[in-house]
Write a structure and sequence with these properties.
The protein is of the alpha/beta class. 33% of the residues lie in helices and 28% in strands.
């Protein structure tokens, strides 16, 4: 089901004035982040207008209206105030034509007004709706900011995610979310945060719920972070043939965005917090073109060539 927000929510965010249609602002929904300036429609061309978009009137449209006859305008206004239309907004405190107010009232289409310039409202509306209508999901795991990178820590229940997260916090890294991570895809990037109820708290087995800020300080928390890497904690098994050179790269697909993922085996003898720090540093180096595995293989090939000579 497509995400939406009510026209009322949009009005409250931008502080718009409702000229008419007050009774329908809760029911009318915005489902498209783009807006429309009705130049074609005012010229009698209706083919290309998206009926679910907000319509924005600026100086050009209002000046053009003054050149048109009532019959053509009536037809245009009927089209613009259809039942799917979220609302019509007049910018720069421009006056809405009485005929449009009359037809909009009949069709239940809200007419709004703002002192903002047309270009400013269009840009800010797109940015705001892009966040409101962006695809979202949630994942069971922990999210940390490690060396300025958002690192998603995954693993089955009881593997030690919260304990490892706790160690990372003690080392000076920041907690974004524990147990559940809410993720939004904005402009191709995965932005994650904790659910409001869970922000700033952790569940530690044997202790219960702890307040991270009160124990480790307010600087141990961060509100949100872009997910850059994923690390999956897995039980260590002797019979498993682990990748010892790090040649293979796995990816985790979240909302169609693929992020690099490492599988790290967990055992009692390993300090997972320190290993994760090293893993993140190594991933950052790879992003900057420094591949330790590649350099090691080159060194090994050079030694083999020397022996053959």
């Amino acid at each position: 089901m497509a995400k939406s927000i009510s026209v009322e929510t949009y009005i409250n965010h931008f502080g718009l004035t409702v000229l008419n249609g007050f009774n329908s602002i809760k029911e009318r929904k915005i489902v498209d982040m783009a807006t429309n300036r009705p130049g074609f429609e005012l010229c009698g061309i209706y083919k290309y207008l998206e009926p679910e978009r907000l319509v924005i009137f600026g100086n050009r449209e209002v000046d053009f209206i003054k050149t048109q006859n009532e019959e053509s305008l009536r037809k245009t206004y009927e089209f613009l105030t259809n039942k799917e239309r979220p609302a019509i907004v007049f910018c720069s405190s421009l006056e809405c034509p009485k005929l449009l107010l009359e037809i909009a009232s009949k069709n239940g289409c809200p007419i709004l007004s703002t002192s903002m310039r047309t270009s400013d409202l269009i840009v800010q509306t797109f940015t705001y709706l892009q966040e409101c209508l962006a695809p979202t999901t949630n994942i069971h795991g922990s999210l940390m900011e490690i060396y300025s990178m958002g690192v998603l820590i995954l693993g089955e229940s009881g593997i030690g995610k919260s304990e490892t997260t706790l160690e990372l916090i003690k080392k000076g890294h920041k907690l974004i979310a524990d147990d559940r991570v809410d993720i939004t895809m904005i402009r191709g990037k995965l932005i994650a945060r904790a659910p409001e109820l869970l922000y700033g708290v952790m569940e530690v087995r044997g202790i219960g719920i702890i307040d991270v800020a009160k124990i480790f300080g307010i600087n141990s928390l961060s509100k949100e972070e872009r997910i850059t890497y994923a690390i999956k904690l897995t039980p260590f098994k002797k019979e498993t043939n682990y990748d010892r050179l790090g040649n293979s790269t796995e990816y985790l697909d979240i909302l169609g965005v693929k992020i690099p993922m490492l599988n790290l085996p967990v055992s009692g003898a390993r300090s997972m917090a320190e290993i994760i720090e090293v893993a993140v540093t190594n991933l950052k180096l790879k992003d900057q073109g420094v591949d330790s595995t590649f350099e090691f293989e080159n060194r090994m090939n050079e030694l083999l060539l020397k022996k053959r000579r």
